Amino acid sequence: MPCIPDTPVRKRCFVQMIGYEPITAAYQHYRFVREMARFRKVWNVQSTVTPPQFSADRTVANWKVESWGPNWRVATDYYCFDWGDLVIADARQSEWKRFPLGLASIVEFILTGTAFRYFSVSPRYPAFFLYPLVVLGGMIWLSVVLTRFVMHRTGWSGHMLLVLLAALGLFALLWLVFGRMLALDYAFDDWHFARKFVHRRQPQLEQRLDRFARELVRLARDTDADEIVLHGQSFGAPLLLLVIDRALRLDPQLGRGGKQLHLVSVGSSLLKVALHPRAAWLREAAGRVANDPAVYWVDFQSLIDVLNAYKVDPIAALGLPHTGKPIIKIIHIHNMLEEATYRRVRLNFLRIHRQSVMGNERRYFYDYQMLCCGPLPLADRVADSDRAVSVFAADGTFLDHAGEAASAAGAAEFRP
Q: Could you report the per-residue pLDDT of 157-198, keeping only the tens digit for each?
């Protein structure tokens, strides 16, 4: 069993790529500050967060985080690689454009056999794919049944053209009323984005990934951090893989010389797009990252999160040679939240999916803020999940492997 290190992380460089959400880095900062309140309460620690600073093109935001307990202190340079404007642009399209584009994309994933490959990966994995089809089918059925009922009661049931027009009108009304409530418009946007991504028909995204790759090279070269953590959530996970792959091609020495890149993927959408037959380029990039010794990669998976594959090695699922990466770690979201909170949100699949970038209500080895702001190195947290929790005393003191207060530095050094 590995020992908890006597010397904690003192400084961390943390890079975040959020998933397919219509939010900007400014909102991510707001959410980060809000969730830090939970972090302070759960772990009995203190923290401060600076306002965000934006690059000239506003694609990268940076803020500073200071977190501390009685005998430790961590300074975090937090960088948000922002591509939310591309998602917002999708959401601003006309409803009548979003619907056919999304439906056509889903049909393509069926006709290419990609949807059937989801079943081969895991019996529960296709749930995220079936959801919009089930909801759409239910709305069509309800439109037809209600229209026929009304037409029959009014004596107009023999006028088929009128019945058809009435059913289409009712469907349009149901879409406008319930489409957003049930996240159906969002799901259709997501699948259309996935289709464009697979076919590489998004020049803006390609340019943004190149921009992020250059920024990652700069950060890795310039930082004096003890640890570099790259966190990709949901669709942000395959995008971050591509950023790392491109950065490694820009600088083959990246991640070497004591500055290893620590990649965290959680709720990953890699298989969603990489199983498509036209995504060979993405599979090759994933294989290169998995084979590079400069990259430490852990993939967190959850049973209740239907948007990720559970207990699945993504590299093996893609038919790539075994590399020992990523390390697969199972997380249980109900252990992160209070029982009442979990009961309230467990059927909200998007809320459950977002928990991986939100604050916990209970102490647990997967804790977004601890990954970002805690003194324990990522590899030690992954290697010994139980001790990643027990190494912190009730008052927030960081303990060594013997259960005593770590004393690598004088306590005065850690006072704010």
A: 556 676 778 778 888 888 888 877 888 889 999 999 999 999
Per-residue DSSP letters for 26-85? HHHHHHHHHHHHHHHHHHT-EEEEPPPEE-TTSSEEEEEEEEEETTEEEEEEEEEE--HH
Arithmetic mean of pLDDT, 31-44: 97
* Terminal-to-terminal C-alpha distance of the chain: 33
pLDDT tens-digit profile of 302-357? 999 988 999 999 999 999 999 999 999 999 999 999 999 999 999 899 999 999 99
Eight-class DSSP state of 321: P
Q: Position 58: which residue type?
A: R
User: 46 has which bridge partners?
Assistant: 68
Q: Supply the pLDDT for residue 172.
A: 84
| Cα separations in angstroms, 365 against 215, 231, 301, 403 | 30, 16, 13, 17
Q: What is the pLDDT of residues 42-59, one digit of tens each?
A: 999 999 999 999 999 999
Q: How far apart are CA 332 and CA 301, in angstroms?
A: 9
Q: What is the pLDDT of residue 147?
A: 82
Q: State the number of CA atoms in the 13 A half-sphere of 163 facing the CB.
A: 17
* 415 band by pLDDT with thresholds 50, 70 and 90: very low
Output the CA torsion 193→195→198→200 (10° steps). -70
DSSP letters, 261-296, are: EEEEEES--HHHHHTSTT-HHHHHHHHHHHH-TTEE
- Residue that is written with structure tokens 């895991």 in the block: 122
pTM, full prediction: 0.91
Q: Token digits for 315?
A: 């590299």
pLDDT score, position 158:
57
Q: Which three-class secondary structure state does DSSP give residue 232?
A: strand
With b for 16 or more beta-carbon neighbours within 10 A and e for fewer, the 362-377 pattern comes to: bbbbbbbbbbbbbbbb
**Residue 129 contacts residue 109 (beta carbons within 8 Å):** yes
* Residue located via tokens 């306002």: 51
* Domain spans in the chain, listed from the N-terminal domain onward: 92-196
Q: Note whether 174 and 139 are within 8 A (CB).
A: yes
C-alpha to C-alpha distance for 47 and 36, rounded to whole angstroms: 8
With a CB cutoff of 8 Å and minimum separation 6, the contacts of 209 are: 239, 242, 243, 246
